[in-house]
Write a structure and sequence with these properties.
The chain contains 8 helices and no strands. The protein is mostly helical. The chain is globular and about 65 Å long.
Length: 246
């Protein structure tokens, strides 16, 4: 008998493959198994996504530090977490819609559509550049680029979930304050990122805050540039003309 995953030869008494850890006797998939895996992914005490969300909220940067240090069985995968958190945020933004007030109703409609459809994807796309910035400025910490990616994916995934409660829903309930909540959300990101870097890089507060300011300025410029270019193409593709700005 051979392992279904890696092909290694298995003795009759093996319960798991000694080479890759795959179960030696996989059963056929059924609905019960799918439901179990779904519940396990979100509620498992040692690796559930809720545990990760709690850890990221209470101890910013700690999960990324431990994951980068080799303690990976305890935490939900950072790539999966970012995509799930971003997907949830995107879905809620799309369903709620945009409540801000802009002079041109047609422009307001398109701006709202753009913000709620593209903000989350662009933030996710920019993460490799954000990780490059943090790696360059915190290079003395000894963390490599991939480890910076882990930190930023965890941080940005948690930030997406924060925005649902502190930006998206309040902005829907109080549309006249939408821009205020959006601005507050970016301020919250700056503060949360600071504590994440303090715990992840283990450098002095003074040195960290200066580097964070530089990293975040570069991130804002990059994000703003990508948003601006994407918005222009979106408005052109949507058929918006100069007369519609009145």
């Amino acid at each position: 008998m051979n392992c279904k995953s890696c092909g290694s030869a298995l003795s009759a008494g093996y319960q798991f493959c000694p080479d890759c850890g795959e179960t030696a006797h996989p059963h056929r998939l059924d609905i019960k198994h799918i439901i179990h895996e779904f519940i396990h992914a979100f509620l498992h005490a040692d690796k559930g996504i809720f545990l990760l969300v709690k850890e990221l909220a209470l101890h910013p940067g700690k999960a990324a530090l431990e994951y980068a240090g080799g303690n990976r069985k305890k935490y939900f995968n950072p790539v999966s977490f970012l995509l799930i958190a971003g997907g949830i945020t995107f879905f809620i933004r799309y369903k709620i819609g945009f409540g801000g007030s802009i002079a041109s109703k047609k422009l307001g409609f398109y701006m709202g559509e753009f913000i709620h459809q593209f903000t989350t994807p662009i933030i996710i796309v920019v993460i490799p550049l954000l990780s490059l910035y943090s790696w360059l400025f915190f290079k003395s910490s000894g963390k490599n680029y991939a480890e910076n990616m882990v930190m930023n994916m965890y941080m940005m995934g948690e930030y997406h979930l924060f925005t649902i409660l502190l930006v998206v829903i309040p902005g829907y309930l109080f549309p006249h304050l939408n821009y205020f909540f959006t601005s507050a959300g970016f301020l919250m990101l700056a503060v949360y990122y600071y504590f994440t870097c303090i715990n992840f890089f283990k450098q002095t507060a003074g040195a960290t805050i200066i580097k964070i300011i530089l990293v975040e300025l570069l991130f804002i410029l990059t994000f703003g540039l990508m948003m601006g270019i994407s918005l222009v193409f979106f408005l052109i593709q949507s058929g918006l003309h100069v007369k519609d700005l009145k």
